[in-house]
Amino acid sequence: MPVEKKYETPLLDQLETGEWPSFVKEIKAAAENNAMANDLLGLLEQSYREKIGHWKHGGIVGVMGYGGGVIGRYTDLPDKYPAISHFHTMRVNQPAGWFYTSEALRTLCDIWDAHGSGLTNMHGSTGDIIFLGTRTEELENVFSKLTAAGFDLGGSGSDVRTPSCCCGKARCEWACYDTMGLTYYITNRYQDELHRPAFPYKMKFKMSGCPNDCVASVARADISIIGTWRDEIQVNQEEVRNYAKSGLDITKEIAMLCPGKCIEWDGNEIQIDNSNCRHCMHCINLMPKALAPGKDRGAAILVGSKAPIVEGALLSSVLVPFIKLEEPYDDLEIWEVIENMWDIWCEEGKNRERIGEFIQRVGLGNFLDAIGLEPQPEMVAFPRDNPYVFYEEYFEEEEDQ
Amino acid sequence: MSDAQPKRLTDIGPPHYQKFLPPIIKENYGKWKYHEILKPGVMVHYSETGAKLFTVRAGSPRLLSTKKIRIYADLADKYCDGHLRFTSRHNVEFLLTKEENIEPLIADLEALGHPVGGTGNAISSLVHTQGWIHCHSAATDASGIVKAVMDELLPYFKTIDLPAKIRVALACCLNMCGAVHCSDIAILGIHRRPPRIDKENLPKMCEIPNLIASCPTAAIRPSQYQGKPSVEIDEDKCMFCANCYTVCPALPLNNPLNDGVSIWVGGKVSNARHEPMFSKLAIPFLPNNPPRWPEVTNAVKHIVELWLKNAKKHERIGEWIERIGWPKFFRLADIPFQKEHIDDFKHAGLSYKRSVHLTYM
Ligand code: HEM
Ligand code: HEM
Ligand code: HEM
Ligand code: HEM
Ligand code: SF4
Ligand code: SF4
Ligand code: SF4
Ligand code: SF4
């Protein structure tokens, strides 16, 4: 149904010019026949004028039986912009690797045109398909059509958030394990934890196939699974020479920048002291045709990264230095470790304490004790430099009676 | 709308990705040998089977109408047997088996206003958040700044000749839905006024013990208002993190006079050469100046250009600054160094200079 244009948007109009694709054009396109998108345009122009947002702090809405997947949203100016008095977000679990057929995309568009604002994010920063804005009474309609089409909602709140991964073996020669396969497995293994928040706070999984970490798992996931290898880098000396011939300065651009200082180039052959290789990917990135990760491939598992809220930002740190990640995934020992981690975090964690903060608070050593893992030197950048050691036991002199 | 309701399914999980993979990917899954970047935004992956897969990557505003998604779908039908994907930084990628389709596809994308690029040593799209389009917490808008910044940085999207990759991200408040804290350049919305207390509604909307516990600096204390339990805020202790607002809607921090943008530099996520690093504060505050935020776009452009001029090959912004040292960065960038640059949260002491490895020129 065409919507009559109601709003002058002189400020937003200025963002229709310039060469980068314009979100204002997208909202205007949707607004031609969607009243929600049209009112969003009016509201956003007002925000641009006043330099302040016009959204209220959420609201608890969702689909029956799920505690996550919908973010409630209401404008604080419902009389002025009635079509967006409700404007809830739905998070739709993306297919691993973000591959689609045109047919699948059209199905999603049909659902959202019938029941929502016609606006999306492809994708949210966690990875979901974001359906941006609908009314409470439409949530079940969207949900039933989604599931009929084979899609389900993603996570929100204190649950397992939608796992995401790089494209891995689908298109990357460096993938050291099947990121998409493992992501699909994890998402299905933890459907209950994903849809029904029961943790102290959110819990994110991200899977990258190699240390380039294209999904930023080390910075954005409570559980970061990063592919790596533990044997020798595969070398094709002929192709190395070809790179040199084509102008790559192997000494300066590769050997001198290698953090392990373990590469030598004599003008004819490259020698890598693999025992000192840090698996940083630099040499491989620069000579993809000549070098490749080794054949004994798997992943390192790191835990605990997060954005600043509540106690400050963290990067993930090593929990498992190397693990083979091959099918059948059911048989991997890592699920027990992860589920032990959740148990102790659920028991001892404070409300809104991410697992990284929890580990900082109780100490990694105590955390390892609790989940039954042995300390390993790979887990620290360096051993403590502070001599205040908490020993838990001491010898007592024999009482002389 | 009188749609017949289908049977209610739950917990089915996402569709299996294999349903959406093009045949060439199914046949060569795990068999890719190496790749080349043919030109900005165009890659070819070679398989050990001899197959070749071409990828064309285009920028996107991330906020997409269903109309635009349908156009993407049409392009995928026209050139890629209906196959496409999106990237972790919100670009769209078309997957081609026919090399002769590359140029016509690029022409269509450029005509549509979606530039092709973002591969290799270039800037890619900005990971970003919701801002005034959808969030109550926002200290600034997200999409507007991203658009204004990318209009300026577009030449660096359409190249592969920068010293290294550059990853820019934006979050409109410290919640950091974009998890921007490990970016070469992070644009971060900040509040600068302690929350105002909506005393009338607070007891109705919020659990006071939870609220008090939510503040990382213990700035919130119990008090009374008209005989009912309430809270007061020790404003000197407030660091504007909005944790309290997240748990209690009666403590809004948004304020047009004080909200704005900060700029952080030198973070990275990949392990290549240097280990991952957090971004560090470069510019504590810039005003919100919609619709194009000239102060912010100029600052970002200035830092990018400084890096281009001074970095050695393969140095990300953080690696470059680590080599020259932060004092020299501030001198070169002509950014005044002030109290706000010095950390005063936990572990602040670890950021103090604890040696005389200093530069004076
Ligand atoms: C009108 C009442 C409220 C509304 C509409 C509301 C809405 C929201 C929304 C939309 C989010 C973002 C969720 C996400 O990103 O997944 C959120 C986060 C959160 N809210 Fe509320 N909220 C309300 C009240 C409360 C109260 C009373 C508490 C605690 C006592 C609370 C605790 C939280 C927490 C801990 C988060 C962070 C969860 C997360 O990001 O994982 N909220 N809230
Ligand atoms: C009601 C307000 C909020 C809105 C509208 C909002 C929106 C979003 C959206 C759309 C995403 C991407 C989700 C996805 O792809 O599944 C996201 C991710 C994220 N949110 Fe929020 N959010 C809100 C509140 C919060 C709060 C309160 C916090 C922190 C306490 C938070 C922290 C994050 C983080 C760190 C991410 C990025 C995670 C990642 O990189 O995987 N958000 N948010
Ligand atoms: C370069 C060295 C270090 C870095 C980058 C670092 C970083 C951090 C970060 C980001 C946090 C979280 C901050 C927060 O929750 O507010 C943290 C927490 C913590 N760190 Fe460190 N840290 C370092 C060294 C140390 C050392 C040497 C110790 C002890 C000897 C230590 C003990 C702790 C403790 C106990 C916590 C938890 C604090 C709490 O829960 O309040 N850290 N560290
Ligand atoms: C239980 C804690 C400690 C005790 C009882 C202790 C005791 C001492 C004593 C008796 C001296 C010799 C003083 C003198 O020659 O007049 C000394 C010197 C010193 N201590 Fe400690 N110390 C402790 C912890 C530490 C720690 C944690 C550090 C550093 C991290 C430290 C660093 C030093 C240094 C740098 C010197 C001077 C060494 C020199 O002159 O070369 N001490 N300490
Ligand atoms: S993380 Fe590694 S394996 Fe995954 S896409 Fe990036 S480079 Fe390839
Ligand atoms: S992967 Fe990194 S550490 Fe290992 S040899 Fe190559 S450059 Fe050196
Ligand atoms: S970063 Fe902050 S303001 Fe922006 S969408 Fe997330 S919670 Fe909202
Ligand atoms: S904004 Fe943060 S520091 Fe300030 S009162 Fe709220 S929780 Fe405390």
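^ iron/sulfur cluster complex. The longest strand of chain A covers residues 223-229. Residues 35-50 of chain A form the longest helix (16 residues).
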